């Protein structure tokens, strides 16, 4: 009798964690879009980061008995919180008030391309391959396909502002990624993330008040509270735990596949629940864009393997 090949021990759980990350992080874009229907975007982001960050920090302080971060670590956490959760998460959430869910998710997925471009322009420390430039070309071309149809149509008020917010959020995530890879701060990743969320919640609270994006808590709709609960439990806690677990159990090339699935999940769910337009141009443009992102990531991993192997030759 022919039997299927069994997965190595631990990999089954890794693939389950990857599925959770891929699907749930895709649905958080839709949940955010639903949430901001009854609460200003920055206020919702503040509440989400406060609750999510509080869960992680209290767990590690009270249960794991970890010490408070020192001054150097706090400086690093403030910078990361500003880049990753105030600008990246906060502005991407704000962009959903003006542009479709899938478009915001797709722009967010472009960060590997911007990381490569930033390193090429400012650091010049990586030899780019033809595959890298092919990926960059496809990524830009795919975005062009997505915008081709809308270029000839009248867009709602605030559309360009929403695109700008989404691009700034993506660039901020890229800079934060570079800052993270080049820093030498040693902290538990969950503990550090919790502090980043808490610190960013204070910044977002100030930002929301300055921009007038606050309403009384009793004025927040029940639907928005349910969306916030989903974002905290599923998006900020469960998904991050699943993401780290999948990174530990699976090869990086496989564990990173979530980045190509998230935007497609966001588009499909938004089309079903929010009745957002999903045309052939949008679908094909998204596929081409994500293929470009994949090729850039693949070329980077190949270069890293070559660098590691060189001393052994």
Description:
With 313 residues, the protein is mostly helical. It has one domain (11-307). The protein is built from 12 helices and no strands. The protein has helices spanning 11-35, 41-63, 71-95, 101-108, 111-123, 130-150, 159-182, 189-210, 222-249, 252-255, 258-273, 280-309. Helix 5 crosses helix 7. The chain is globular, with a radius of gyration of 20 Å. The termini are far apart. Mean pLDDT is 87; it is low at 1-9.
Q: How would you classify the helix and strand content by structural class?
A: mainly alpha
Shape type? globular
What would you report as the Rg, rounded to the nearest angstrom? 20 Å
SSE ordering: HHHHHHHHHHHH
Main pleated-sheet profile? none
Low-pLDDT runs of 5+ residues are 1-9
How far apart lie the N and C ends?
Answer: 45 Å
How would you summarize the topology of this molecule?
Blueprint: H1 11-35, H2 41-63, H3 71-95, H4 101-108, H5 111-123, H6 130-150, H7 159-182, H8 189-210, H9 222-249, H10 252-255, H11 258-273, H12 280-309
Helix pairs in contact: 1-4, 1-9, 1-11, 2-3, 2-8, 2-9, 3-7, 3-8, 4-11, 5-7, 5-12, 6-12
Which features does this protein show?
mainly alpha, 76% helix, disordered N terminus
Brief account:
76% of the residues lie in helices and 0% in strands. The chain is mostly helical. It starts with 10 loop residues before the first helix and ends with a helix.
